[in-house]
Design goal:
Catalytic activity: D-ribulose + ATP = D-ribulose 5-phosphate + ADP + H(+); L-ribulose + ATP = L-ribulose 5-phosphate + ADP + H(+)
EC number: 2.7.1.16
Keywords: Arabinose catabolism, ATP-binding, Carbohydrate metabolism, Kinase, Nucleotide-binding, Transferase
Strand content: 15-25%
Pfam family, one: FGGY_N
GO molecular function, one term: ribulokinase activity
Structural class: alpha/beta
Number of strands: 22
Oligomer: single chain
Length: 558
């Protein structure tokens, strides 16, 4: 019998990546990347005329289909594998990334008369223009004593589904009326491949307030948010939710032809980029927190009980692995944090020096920053350049850098920004543990985890925990491929459960990061100061950040 393979497609914020994986051992034989043609639209629509407001972040669904049509044939060609030996595939996506579609599943932005309407496009996960709607949702839920609110740390984010849907109902009621369904992009792409609508339990649970035991919140709650949301689940969403690890359907002949695969190839229920990564590092038990580190960081952790943790992004039964309660937390700005600094604040002399040495600017700054002792710069930062996801759940918070003098150097600021993200991580860990959810080990995956040893050592020192790295540098895509193998099943050469697949296909590296005792003690002092700033600016004692944002918005309107 010939060897069997599965494909995983990981949809990120700027590109989509496909990997071809050996089902027998989890080895990646080939991978291909397609940058999105339209990237992230945060200033103008593709017409170059329609201007977007502050905090908008849109995408074009055509880009997602192009990923399938280009990357999958590419990995087959590179590997030399026959399409007959590909038994299954699955995808993962950023979330909550949502779009309105018509009764045929066609995105509204594909309609000629709606191409200049921003609300007809995909609202990316980091679309924060629905914050007013999120604030009202939280106020109404709190006033009514809705039980679901505590499952999400007491506050719903503007990044989630219902604030974005409320924004459409209020600002573009014609779009709301015209849409047949409002879908997560991960479910929409899967539907395009199979012809079957199968909404996954992960996005429904973490981003759309759905519970395995209680379902969605009651209809009168949605009606209280906006009259148009009366019967919103029946009219715009779907009551049928499918668990992870199931088969969503099979490739249609049309999509199989466009992707270079066989019709009938098994397609797994869609997933989220962070959550799908957990089994890819071999984690199948509670108490191990995985940091998926990229432009932002998402934290995934499994527990045996449902605990209420302030500021968590959600606790969902079977939301990550069957039989466990899956917890999510995260930080809205990590890789974006450092890129912002490099693009806007690093002098030309540093750029030239890096080029002379044949190094990238991030590597150059990291090498200079690694020579600094803990606390040597006298700097302290808050990592809120894109708001705070956990534990404050407040996108209206902004960044802070304290301690600068005329002697402050770029590498000192660079290190302080890195340390700020580590302090934010420690705040998340402590909040979980203070509320009865133990964390034994830290695991990490994503480009930053592999490229920046200094950063990972800082995290180990600040959090005072060992950190293990995924053996694969494409962890989410590998996780998606694993679920593709599960969708195919053992009879086709795959696996009957994600636990079986994780034992064979999920791995971590042999080497790991261990806390350095003297650094641990030094960082305790800095963290204490970080916590003071965190609570002072983040818990209502001084709302200057929000006042400044309002002044900015008013000035732009004028």
């Amino acid at each position: 019998m010939s060897k069997k393979y599965s494909i995983g497609v990981d949809y990120g914020s700027l590109s989509g990546r496909a990997v071809l994986v050996d089902v027998e051992n989890g080895s990646i034989l080939a991978q291909a990347v397609k940058d999105y043609t339209h990237a992230v639209m945060d200033e103008y629509l593709p017409d170059g005329v329609t201007r977007l407001g502050p905090d908008w972040a849109l995408q074009h669904p055509q880009d997602y289909l192009e990923v399938l049509e280009q990357t999958i044939p590419a990995v087959l060609k590179e590997s030399g594998i026959s399409k007959e030996d590909v038994i299954g595939l699955a995808i993962d996506f950023t979330a909550c990334t949502v779009l309105p579609v018509d009764d045929k599943g066609i995105p509204l932005c594909f309609h000629e008369d709606l191409k200049d309407n921003p609300h007809a496009y995909v609202k990316l996960w980091k679309h924060h223009a629905a914050q007013d709607q999120a604030n009202r949702l939280n106020a109404v839920a709190k006033e009514r004593g809705e039980s679901f609110l505590q499952r999400y740390g007491g506050k719903i984010s503007s990044e989630w589904l219902f604030p974005k849907l409320m924004q459409i109902a209020e600002e573009a009621p014609d779009i709301y009326d015209r849409m047949d369904r409002f879908m997560e992009a991960t479910d929409w792409v899967t539907m395009m491949m199979t012809g079957q609508e199968r909404r996954n339990s992960c996005t429904a649970g973490y981003k759309a307030l759905w519970s395995k035991r209680e379902g969605y919140p009651p209809n009168d709650f949605f009606k209280a948010l906006h009259p148009k949301l009366d019967h919103v689940v029946e009219e715009k969403l779907a009551a049928d939710i499918y668990p992870l690890g199931q088969k969503a359907g099979e490739l249609t002949p049309e999509m199989a032809g466009r992707m270079g695969l066989l019709p009938g190839t098994a397609v797994g229920i869609a997933n989220v980029d962070a959550h799908v990564a957990l089994p890819a590092v071999g984690i199948t038990e509670p108490g191990n927190l995985l940091m998926i580190m990229g432009t932002s960081t998402c934290d995934i952790l499994c527990g045996t009980e449902e605990k209420i943790v302030p500021g968590m992004c959600g606790v969902v039964e079977d939301g990550v692995l069957p039989g466990y309660f899956g917890y999510e937390a995260g930080q809205s700005c990590v890789g974006d944090h450092f890129d912002w600094f490099v693009k806007n604040c690093v002098p030309k002399s540093y750029q030239d020096a890096a080029a002379t040495e044949g190094k990238g600017i991030h590597q150059y700054l990291t090498e200079k920053a690694s020579k600094l002792k803990v606390g040597e710069s006298g700097l302290l930062a808050l990592d809120w350049w894109n708001g705070n996801r956990s534990v404050l759940v407040d996108v209206d918070l902004t960044g802070l850098l304290l301690g600068c003098t005329l002697q402050t150097k770029p590498e000192e600021i660079y290190r302080a920004l890195i340390e700020a993200t580590a302090f934010g991580k420690n705040m998340i860990i402590q909040t979980f543990e203070e509320n009865g959810v133990p964390i034994n080990k830290l695991f990490a995956c994503g480009g930053i985890a592999y490229k920046n040893p200094m950063m990972m050592q800082i995290y180990a020192d600040v959090c005072n925990r060992e950190i293990y790295l995924s053996a694969s540098d494409q962890t989410p895509a590998l996780g998606a491929a694993m679920f593709g193998a599960v969708a195919a099943g053992r009879e086709k050469g795959g696996y009957d459960s994600i636990f079986d697949a994780a034992k064979v296909m999920g791995k971590v590296k042999d080497e790991y990061y261990k806390p350095i005792p003297e650094n641990v003690e030094a960082y305790k002092q800095l963290y204490a100061e970080f916590k003071l700033l965190h609570d002072y600016f983040g818990r209502g004692e001084n709302d200057v950040m929000k006042r400044l944002k309002k002044i900015k918005a008013d000035a732009r309107k004028a």
